[in-house]
Structures are given as C-alpha cells and as structure tokens.
Specification:
The protein is α+β, with helices and mostly antiparallel strands. It has 2 domains: 106 residues, Uridine Diphospho-n-acetylenolpyruvylglucosamine Reductase, domain 2 (2-Layer Sandwich), CATH 3.30.43; 218 residues, Cytochrome p450 (Orthogonal Bundle), CATH 1.10.630.10. The protein contains 14 helices and 7 strands. Strands 1-2-7-4-3 form a 5-stranded mixed beta sheet. A two-stranded antiparallel ribbon has the order 5-6. The longest helix is centred in the middle third of the chain and has 29 residues.
Length: 374
C-alpha cells in the first residue's frame, strides 16, 4: 500500500508509523495544503495546541453543527464538555471529573467480562463487532444504572448518536442521531431526576451539588456523553489490543491495553480551531484556521518516549497523548483500559487464538479513529 500523503489518510493505513515518524522529524508543525489545515505532529506542538487558550474544539462560528440545530442531538452536542470551551465548560468538566472519579475500573472490568461471556455464549463464537462496540456501551450503561434489559437499546442508540459528530455527517445520519439523542435522554433522565439516582448518574448529581451546578440539562447531555465517548475510542482500543496479542504475550492485560493506547492509538488525531491568532514557533495560526493535532505521531516522538517504536507494556511513566491533554483531556482512560482488559481476559478464557486474526487488517474509513475490521 502506498505511503500516506496526509495524516487523515494515515489513520486507516496498515502501518502509518513510519510516515508519522518522518512528519515528526521533518515537519513537526506546518501547513498542509491538501488538508487546508495546520498539522501538529511532535509532542511539543501537540501539547501546545491542546493547551492553547486561542484554540477551540469547535469552529467559533458553528458551536453546534448546523444540521443539528433545534434537535435533541443538537441540544446534547451543545452541552457536552468535550465539545465546548470557556468558564462554564471548566465548571461542568469538574462535575464530570468528580463523577467519573467515583467509578471503579475494577467494576467496569468485571462487567466487561460478564457482557463478553454473554455475547460469546449467545453467538457461539467471538463476534468482534459486538465485543468492540456493543460490550463497552453496555458496560457504561450498566455503570449509569440502567437496567440490564435496556443496555442493548442504549448501545444501539449511542451508535446512531455518534454518527452526528464527524464533520461529514449526512442529513440522514443527523436525523438518526436526533432520534437517538431524544430516546437516550428518556432512558437516562430518570436516573438523574428520580428519587434514588444510581451509579454514575447519582455521582453526577452529588458532584453537581458539591460544585453548586444548578442546571440538569447539561448533566443529562454529559450522561449521554459517558456512552458516546466510550464508543469509537474503546472499540479501537479493543480491536488494536486483539491485534497486539498476535505478537505479545497475554500477561498483564491492563498494561498491554495501556501500551496499545500509546503505540497504536485508537484515536489518532483531533482538531482545534483558532478563535484568535495563535503563534507557535515561527508560525501564526489565524482566526478561522484549523489545526489537526496528530496524537498518534506525538505518542511515537522520541522526545516524549525513549525508544518510542518498541512495544513495552512495562514502559515506565509513558507519555500518551491518545486521551488528549489540557482542558479537554478525556477522563475515561482508566475505564477504557479496564473494559478492554475485561473483554480480552474473557476471550482468552474461551480459547481465543490471536494468531487467527489477519496480519494486515483493513480499517474503518474514519478520519480520526483507528478501528480494525476483524
């Protein structure tokens, strides 16, 4: 297969890492004419971009995609801490962080193993799509306090909702996302406003009280966000960890998953948009311009991680940009790792043979998530 011509093509390339290494060494921060965006590739520029107050997670003139305005999906999207900036975002982010801090990774891992076992017993074999996408969503639904009977519906709905997040979402995908968001709010709402909230939803209520956060709608939106942020990232982490087992011993599975997150990042890049001029080195990013932040390249920067191309689950204090940095760092890294380890552990207990997986799989045609087709 040809060498990628830009970092978006690289996401689904069988081996994008030589390309990323050249990019990091030769053009760590620069303008990409084809993408019409600045590209941050090395650890220094990625760290700076993710922390820059002048850069936003959404285009300043379009905080919510136009096709979602006036819909339930637009209301949820506009309140997600992942998709907003500013003082209110930081206050709400602290509420979300507090709530997630009450989640027990060990419980998530146990739930992941149980849901994996159920899937394998029902299907009679490893249905990888279900294990990668449905199991993590069902685990988070359970952590939110949903009844087991509602978990499959919640998992299906979140799959519809996340289709509205990419910039290239079609009108049909946006309509499906709007319907899914409305139903997800119906499913999760009672857990926030009922007399006895449970799980992560109860933790959100408690955290909001401690932080004097008065509004319920953003809490409900971020309850949906617990599910949506699990979807592609954890699917990619599970899939890439399964592939890693072709070459790596099945020892400490949580350590393996953490190293996969760095070495073969499930989320390869993210974007930022300049609201004000941002200067980095000799370059100035003008308002309205975009920065493609290549997390996977920074993970392999020798300045961030010695011998970065080696796969080492025992690597001491690795620098991993996959879950972001700065005000939008994803707080769910430990849960994603625990869920992945739970899925792997149960698969191995059922006799899974990683050698049976393709040596050079294809990947979903996505702009930022690296998810193998198994």
């Amino acid at each position: 297969m040809q060498t990628p011509t830009n970092p978006v093509e690289a996401v689904r390339h069988p081996d994008p890492y030589p390309y990323y290494a050249r990019l990091t060494a030769e053009r760590p921060f620069g303008w990409d004419e084809r993408l019409q965006a600045w590209v941050a590739a090395d650890a220094a520029s990625v760290t700076a971009a993710l922390s820059a107050a002048e850069l936003r997670v959404r285009p300043p003139g379009e905080p919510v995609p136009t096709g979602l305005l006036g819909t339930a999906a637009g209301a949820v999207f506009g309140d997600l801490v992942r998709m907003t900036d500013g003082p209110d975002q930081q206050r709400l982010k602290q509420v979300v962080l507090d709530a997630l801090g009450e989640a027990e990774p060990a419980e998530a891992g146990k739930l992941a193993a149980e849901r994996t076992r159920q899937s394998l017993e029902r299907a009679g074999g490893p249905g990888f799509e279900e294990l990668m996408f449905q199991v993590p969503a069902r685990v988070v639904a359970a952590l939110c306090g949903l009844d087991a009977g509602l978990e499959p519906e919640a998992a299906r709905l979140v799959g519809d909702f996340v289709q509205c997040i990419p910039a290239g979402a079609t009108a049909e995908q946006q309509r499906a996302a709007a319907e899914a968001a409305a139903r997800l709010r119906e499913l999760l709402g009672p857990g926030l406003t009922g007399a006895e909230p449970t799980g992560l939803l109860a933790a959100l209520v408690r955290a909001a009280g401690r932080r004097d956060w008065p509004r319920t709608a953003p809490l409900l939106a971020n309850a949906v966000g617990f599910l949506s942020q699990t979807y592609d990232a954890t699917a990619g982490l599970i899939g890439n960890s399964l592939l890693a087992l072709r070459e790596q011993p099945a020892g400490d599975l949580a350590a393996l998953a953490r190293e996969v997150a760095r070495h073969d990042a499930p989320i390869q890049n993210t974007r930022r948009f300049a609201a004000e001029p941002w200067r980095f080195g000799a370059a100035t990013v003008q308002p309205g311009q975009a920065v493609l932040v290549v997390l996977a390249a920074a993970n392999r920067d020798p300045a961030a991680n010695p011998d970065p191309h080696a796969f080492d689950p025992a690597r001491p204090a690795p620098s991993c940009f996959t879950f972001g940095a700065g005000p939008h760092r994803c707080p769910g890294a430990d849960l994603a790792v625990a869920i992945t380890a739970g899925v792997l552990d149960e698969l191995l207990a059922h006799g899974f043979e990683a050698a049976a997986l393709p040596a050079g799989p294809s990947y979903r045609a996505l702009a930022n998530a690296r998810i193998p087709l198994l």
